[in-house]
Amino acid sequence: MKLRFTYWLLAVCLYAGAVQAQQVTPTADQIKALTPAWKGDRTPDGRPKVPDALLQRLKNISIEEAWGILRNKGYQNQFEGDWMLLRPDQVMTGRVVTAQYMPLRPDWDQLVKDKGKAEGRIGGTNSWPIDVLSNGDVYVADSYGKVVDGTLIGDNLGNSIYAKSKNGVIFYGSVRDMEGLEEIAGFTAWVKGYDPSYIQQMMLAGINVPIRIGRATVLPGDVVLAKKGGVIFIPAHLLEEVVLNAEFIALRDQFGHQRLKEGKYTPGEIDSQWTDAIKKDFLQWLDAQGDKLPMSRQDLDKFMKNRTW
């Protein structure tokens, strides 16, 4: 009971301090406290910094595979579909930088602008999340689905986003100047709409704070996998497990499909619990793949020790 009260008191103090300071973004320590399950490297602002190699491997994972693994881990609210895509065939992965927008309330908006000015932030508030981006980040914003007068970026800000992150954006809202954005080689976007209007009657409420993207809850430093079927947000501490699980399932399926085509096993044998003979055959098949494996053989062997096939 005493320990729970201590945690409660700490949370209240952190919240009160944030309100009093009217922070635009939490401190690095606050972001670390928000993502305690991650034990690896972090960015200077405190977000989990997953390895680039895992981000690259994640591109080959299907939304369904990632969703199924997360769901089994208890994370059932990490997917959002029904997007307008700038480039439907492009896949995007990266470390999430969040931004929360709200309908304009002048007194709060002024507090945020004053705090931003004191912190040395320049330009319109919709450019501030872009200023914190670095290579491998993905700018993810909740602008509450506003399309008309809710366009967060046009081609100028789109160029800045790509220059800093080498990635695109995911907006629960809209953009303008789609033709200009299409001309930015490599840039892509998942948005809820397009409109030629400018942003009006909106305010930035926070950067790198927890946000809602449709059906999904998103934290700063989450990893996003965005494909034409939708986007899924993966907690950083689960990324390696998601990737390894999905890669193993893909290898298992590849082996099964090959052996079925060869007529070596029946569908019933492949689709049920494997016999020791099939397991041995699979291990020999893995040996023959050599450097075609998506992971190191050491990582694969370690993973298989804890898996019940």
TrEMBL record:
It comes from the Bacteria. It holds the Pfam family RraA-like. GO terms for molecular function: metal ion binding. Its cofactor is Mg(2+). Residues 1-21 form the signal peptide. Substrate binds at residues 154-157, 176. Mg(2+) binds at residue 177. Keywords: Magnesium, Metal-binding, Signal. This is RraA family protein.
